[in-house]
């Protein structure tokens, strides 16, 4: 019978037996890719810039700038021109001259603020946002700017004064870093986005065609950080029927009931939506008649249109003209008008590739970034910027926001300030230095 090994010897033998496994584990750990670290000093400056950005939000929200409030728009435009000039840009106010007039376009639309920063490189980059809101003058008194915990509230703060602030402080970070590796960095902030940009659209398209990348700073969602590669196109249908009035009691047969014909037209156009292509047509407004006892001589209706593809605008217009030829009431006149209020922004291989790079930047600071390449229903100026270019155009570089167009709940998440500033700063840096893998 053999004697049992000494306890100390047993311990040494056990350790030796575990050595191969330990070495294998160490090798596996060493083989893992190193966690990317945030680029300095960009990340540090993004952290430091947060208090100043909050002050800017207060300044911007405290100026009422509804889309038809020219006085308020002039005030905020002057402020932004001065801020951009102080950052070293060639800043100016641009009066719209080529105006696409729609049914609700006011006689005068707000100016644009444009600034250009010249660098030493080749790449051309544009940042866009808008300074107008949907709110009426006087509403600010009931909903002034305020900070409550990690939220900053205020009229227009999510749509889109946060985006304006993000642009200002991203440029400030680049200036503090003395970063000038771009060819030109153009900033365009318009004052008519909420009324479908009748005055800014031509400038957005012209400048967009000259860029290597366009970053639009509408807000992200509070449910999570995201970028959007697609937005909906928005259209409007106006239908008008002219008939003939008569007494509804004694001689209705002498009239031509415009309301009957309008109803017929709407019913025969109720099938225009196409879920397969994302086309949505919904009749939302109608009006007819002047008195209960008079056969209506005029009737009107309007429909909201959303598209994901520009081609759907063309086919819809043709269909509308074909349908109105089929009338119910003889001797009535049917007219249809179609407004292309916004084109859709469509995802492209270039925008998808650049969005993947953005996700890598976010991973550097331990954050996740969702990328949406299907439109959610809303339309933005990014589509105008993309209308004549093959360069990548990406939307939602603004802060996480909630409650757009809501006068009692609109806010931005202040925890998103640092990551969003870092993201936009790094995207400008990497596009300028050809580090995006495009």
UniProtKB/TrEMBL annotation:
Protein name: Carboxypeptidase G2 (CPDG2)
Listed cofactors: Zn(2+)
PANTHER family cross-referenced by the UniProt entry: ACETYLORNITHINE DEACETYLASE, BLL3749 PROTEIN
EC number from the UniProt entry: 3.4.17.11
Signal sequence region: 1-36
InterPro entries: ArgE/DapE_CS, Bact_exopeptidase_dim_dom, Pept_M20_glutamate_carboxypep, Peptidase_M20, Peptidase_M20_dimer, Peptidase_M20A
UniProt lineage: Bacteria, Pseudomonadati, Pseudomonadota, Betaproteobacteria, Burkholderiales
Keywords tagged on the record: Carboxypeptidase, Hydrolase, Metal-binding, Protease, Signal, Zinc
One of the record's GO molecular function terms: carboxypeptidase activity
Gene3D superfamilies, sorted: 3.30.70.360, Zn peptidases
Top-rank taxon, per record: Bacteria
Domain Peptidase M20 dimerisation: from-to ranges: 230-330
Active-site positions on this chain: 132, 193 (proton acceptor)
PROSITE patterns in the record: ARGE_DAPE_CPG2_1 (PS00758), ARGE_DAPE_CPG2_2 (PS00759)
Protein's UniProt keywords contain Zinc: yes
């Amino acid at each position: 019978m053999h004697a049992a090994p000494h306890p100390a010897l047993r311990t040494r033998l056990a350790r030796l037996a575990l050595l191969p496994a330990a070495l294998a584990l160490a090798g596996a750990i060493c083989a893992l890719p190193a966690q990317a670290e945030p680029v300095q000093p960009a990340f540090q400056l993004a952290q430091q810039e947060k208090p100043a950005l909050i002050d800017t939000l207060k300044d911007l929200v405290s100026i009422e700038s509804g889309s038809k409030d020219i006085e308020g728009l002039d005030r905020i435009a002057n402020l932004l021109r001065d801020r951009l000039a102080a950052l070293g840009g060639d800043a100016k106010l641009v009066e719209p001259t080529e105006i696409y007039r729609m049914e609700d376009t006011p006689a005068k639309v707000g100016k644009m603020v444009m600034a250009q920063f010249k660098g030493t490189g080749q790449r051309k980059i544009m940042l866009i946002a808008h300074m107008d809101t949907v709110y009426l003058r006087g509403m600010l008194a009931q909903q002034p700017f305020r900070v409550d915990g990690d939220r900053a509230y205020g009229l227009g703060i999510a749509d889109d004064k946060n985006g304006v602030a993000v642009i200002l402080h991203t440029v400030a970070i680049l200036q503090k870093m003395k970063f000038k590796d771009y060819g030109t960095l153009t900033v365009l902030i318009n004052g008519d986005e909420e009324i479908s940009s009748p005055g800014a659209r031509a400038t957005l398209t012209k400048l967009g065609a000259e860029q290597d990348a366009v970053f639009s700073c509408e807000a992200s969602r509070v449910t999570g950080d995201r970028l959007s590669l697609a937005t909906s196109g928005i259209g409007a249908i106006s239908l008008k029927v002219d008939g003939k009035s008569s007494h509804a009691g004694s001689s209705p047969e002498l009239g031509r009931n415009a309301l009957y014909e309008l109803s017929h037209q709407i019913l025969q156009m109720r099938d225009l939506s196409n879920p397969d292509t994302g086309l949505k047509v919904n009749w939302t407004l109608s009006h007819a008649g002047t008195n209960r006892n008079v056969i209506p001589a005029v009737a009107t209706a309007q429909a909201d249109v959303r598209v994901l593809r520009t081609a759907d605008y063309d086919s819809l217009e043709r269909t509308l003209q074909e349908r109105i030829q089929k009338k119910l009431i003889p001797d009535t006149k049917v007219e249809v008008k179609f407004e292309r209020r916004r084109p859709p922004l469509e995802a492209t291989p270039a925008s998808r590739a650049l969005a993947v790079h953005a996700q890598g930047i976010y991973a550097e600071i331990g954050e996740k970034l969702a990328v949406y390449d299907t439109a959610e229903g809303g339309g933005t100026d990014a589509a105008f910027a993309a209308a004549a270019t093959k360069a990548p155009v990406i939307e939602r570089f603004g802060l996480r926001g909630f409650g757009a167009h809501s006068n009692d709940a609109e806010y931005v998440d202040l925890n998103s300030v640092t990551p969003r500033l870092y993201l936009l700063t790094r995207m400008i840096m990497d596009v300028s230095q050809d580090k995006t893998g495009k």
